[in-house]
Amino acid sequence: MASFDDSGAPRDGASSSAAPSYAYPFSVAPMMGVTDRHWRWMARQMSRKTLLYTEMVVDSALNHNAHNLGGTQFLGHDACEAPVAVQLGGNDARALGDAAALCVDYFGDSCVEINLNCGCPSNVVAARNEFGARLMLDPEKVRGIVHELIRRCPSTPVTVKHRLGTDLSGSDYATTLAFVRASRAAGCRHFVLHAREAVLDKKFSTQQNRTIPPLKPDVAHMLARDLPDCTFAMNGMLRSLEDCAAHLSEWKGLPPVHSAMVGRAAWYQPWDLLATADTALYGAASDPAASRRDVLEAYLDYADERHAALDVAEDCLYRPLFYLFGGEQNSKKFRVRLADEVTRRARRTNRGRDAAAAAELPPPSDVVRDALAAGDLSAAAMDRRPGESAEPQGRPRRVDEPD
User: Fold this and answer.
1) What are the tens digits of pLDDT across the range 19-33?
2) Where is this region: Disordered (predicted)?
């Protein structure tokens, strides 16, 4: 049996009695304005097994709206979205514990993890509200939060998403390891590492934080080597399933990580990332969608059904489709046409507040079909099967830019 010191780290020469396993080798990162209930529903038509994260939900928002958790802005979901990881933001252990208990109770078995956000560097999150990446400045505080989350949700794994460190705390390996050890001492056994430093300077944008600090993927593998009783997911500039698979194998003489997490690539090219994930990374016998057309038709039925019950502006129903045809000829033309029509509808209905005007408009499926026709997307693009390549479109597009 392995022996541990007071920090929760293995003593020199100690080893884990059994290598840990992690059920989800592939996941999609929590992204504000992207991974809401509607995007997750569409994603699930392409992959049944990929772990999907919610958008980050702030603890106080849940606790103050405990009577309306089913709202789109909170924990609204469909059972078919499982497995789902709920990401929480906050810095108060008791409030986060209350919110986590609400999540587990409301999601039931669909929620397979509660994830604590210790990596978001945005000014609103980290500077104004002092959580997200700001928490990396105080590993002992995070240890207390993790302890409370586990105490309140003993049957649901508690995980932590974090960066290498920050420009204020440092981001060398010793800093990262010390942060992970603190949460590990509280009982956390799975960590998601966005392998970049978080720059907390208010002049540094969230997009800059996703692209400018150097990516150091080796660190995730070093953590897997040095903390063998934990599991680790690598996040950062993974653009394809091939990129993900590379980290799920030995990496530069270091052991593999246990999971790969994609972010913006899943938003800009969901078909390429998700349509073959089940067979490529989960070993499934087949993938759920035969073609993009199947995904589109299923989603349009869903959108028409959900439209009458929307509790927010209807543009949330159209956003998941913006990049379904990413990489195909005329995909931008389709997206622009759809976005323009959604904007016009919003003006006519005062963003959904004019119920009488909204009732006179055609259903979402008609709007999307009109945009498809105007966008002149080819039958080949519509009927693209999992794993089939789109026609070349010139230079490769960066993951952080639209096509």
Assistant:
1) 789 999 999 999 999
2) 347-403
Residue 314 contacts by C-beta under 8 Å, 6 or more apart in sequence? 307, 342, 345, 346, 349, 352, 358, 364
Interatomic CA distance for residues 195 and 186, integer angstroms = 22
Mean predicted confidence (pLDDT) in 363-387: 95
**Residue range 150-161, pLDDT digits in tens:** 999 999 999 999
What does pTM read for this prediction?
0.91
**Under a CB-based contact definition with an 8 Å cutoff, are residues 160 and 146 in contact?**
yes
Chain centroid offset of residue 57 CA:
12
d(Cα 213, Cα 390) in Å, to the nearest integer?
32
Average pLDDT, the chain: 91
Alpha-carbon distance 259 to 248, whole Å?
7
Residue (of 183, 203, 202) closest to 192 by Cα position: 183
Distances in Å between the Cα of 308 and the Cα atoms of 168, 174, 299, 336 are 48, 53, 15, 25
Specify whether the CB–CB gap between 363 and 345 falls below 8 A: no
H or E element: which one contains 347? helix 331-349
CA 62 to chain centre: 19
Residues serving a catalytic function are 120
Query: What are the pLDDT digits (tens) for 188-221?
Result: 999 999 999 999 998 899 999 999 999 999 999 9
Residue entry with tokens 């543009």: 315
Q: Which residues pair with 113 in a beta bridge?
A: 85
Helix axes 331-349, 364-375, angle to 10 degrees: 140
